[in-house]
Amino acid sequence: MISEPEQGDGANDAEGGGGSPYEVVAAGAPETAPGARRRWPWKWIAATAALTSVLWAAGVRAADRGDGPDLHGYRLASSPCTPTTLKPLLDAFPTGDRTGTPADLRRGSALDQATCGVLATGANTDPWLVQYDVTVTVELHKKTDPAVEFADRNHPTTKASDPVPDTFGGGPGYSSTIMVSADSTDHVVPVAHLGDKAYLLDGLPSRQTLTVLRGGAVLTVEVSASEQWTHTGHPSVDSSGHFVGAPDLSVDRFHPAMTATVKRLMDAL
């Protein structure tokens, strides 16, 4: 701690022997009379220290913030699955019960994410019952731009032939066809006018996924359908192994509702 220098006696002050070696005199200030005590400009020192502290704190915040991707103001304050957000899809499903799943919210310094959904029961087409499962996933990347990862995850399907070692029983020269695309689907369709980039993954008729990139946000809505046998015993199968009289599980008719749901989700975040 720096204390104010003590005042010496008049004789020593007059001779300059008792003055502080750290005296500060403002430019243009009148000379202090001999023997008078010169005081530190504490108000100016305090103001300078406060300003330095503010600038340092701002610098730390800027360094922490870095050059992360633009989140467009998106925040995960609560579950993104609300009746209002999911209304386009819920209205598109046949009349039936709806059961929501609690949101799994996770927040971190680099990534905030949420997963939630709803299970909708379709109309009962005796002896079958169709159920629609909606899953919503939101990822907010605060440090690293997810654009490259998004492109890798959702690039259009390609085929590659790779040699298979003898241990797999193929023998020399044997090759296998590997389908490369998102989530093991075999059809990736770009969707225009939705976020920065958007893709529809429709490899399976009973499962469709719409995923959208906007800045540092990745939003995904998946719809899948399944049937449930409601009678006792087992359903009959045909020569191809398919259930006889099973309902149509195609969900491609829900594409417009999925797009509308994603747009509502982007507005609600």
Comma- or semicolon-separated keywords:
269 residues; alpha+beta; seven-stranded antiparallel β-sheet; two-stranded antiparallel ribbon; elongated
Indicate the structural class: alpha+beta
C-alpha Rg (nearest Å): 35 Å
Overall residue-averaged pLDDT value = 75
Output the helix-strand order: HHHEEEHEEEEEEH
- Give the amount of beta strand, in percent: 25-35%
Sheet of most strands:
7 strands, antiparallel
Topology:
Blueprint: H1 10-15, H2 42-65, H3 87-92, E1 98-106, E2 111-125, E3 128-141, H4 147-153, E4 158-163, E5 175-180, E6 188-190, E7 197-204, E8 207-214, E9 217-229, H5 255-268
Region (Disordered): 1-26, 87-106
Task: Write a structural description.
With 269 residues, the protein is of the alpha+beta class. The longest helix is centred in the N-terminal third of the chain and has 24 residues, at 42-65. Mean pLDDT is 75; it is low at 10-29, 51-64 and 159-184. Strand 7 and strand 8 (207-214) form a beta hairpin. The chain has 5 helices and 9 strands; from the N terminus they run αααβββαββββββα. It has 2 domains: 12-65; 87-268. Strands 1-2-3-9-8-7-6 form a 7-stranded antiparallel β-sheet, covered by helices on one side.
Outline of the structure:
The protein is an alpha+beta fold and 269 residues long.
